[in-house]
Amino acid sequence: MPRAWLPALALLKAAGAAGLLLGLLGAKPLGLAAGTGLVLFYVGAVLAPTTG
Questions:
Q1: Fewer CB under 10 Å: which end of the chain, C or N?
Q2: Rounded to whole angstroms, how far apart are CA atoms 12 and 15?
Q3: Which pLDDT tens digit goes with each residue over 17-48?
Q4: Cα(19)–Cα(27) distance, rounded to whole angstroms?
Q5: If you compute the radius of gyration of the chain from its CA atoms, what whole number of angstroms results?
């Protein structure tokens, strides 16, 4: 993974965490979307090294 991607990936994780927090505070659709996005993020992180 190119180092230039790290700030963007960190921003995506932070946005996901903020979305989960807002979901816990009452914005249920946002929390669901954030949770789904974070699961996909981590699935991609696991699969990326194995796909070359």
A1: C
A2: 5
A3: 999 999 999 999 999 999 999 999 999 888 88
A4: 8
A5: 13
Q: Is a pLDDT exceeding 80 seen at residue 49?
A: yes
CA-to-CA separations, 7 to 41, 49, 51, in angstroms, rounded: 14, 19, 22
Buried/exposed code over 9-47 (b: 16+ C-beta within 10 A; e: otherwise): eeeeeeebeebbeebeeeeeebbeebeebbeeeeeeeee
Nearest in space to 9 (alpha carbons), one of 41, 31, 48: 41
Q: Which amino acid is at 31?
A: G
Mean of pLDDT values over 4-25: 92
Cα 27 to the center of its chain, rounded Å: 17
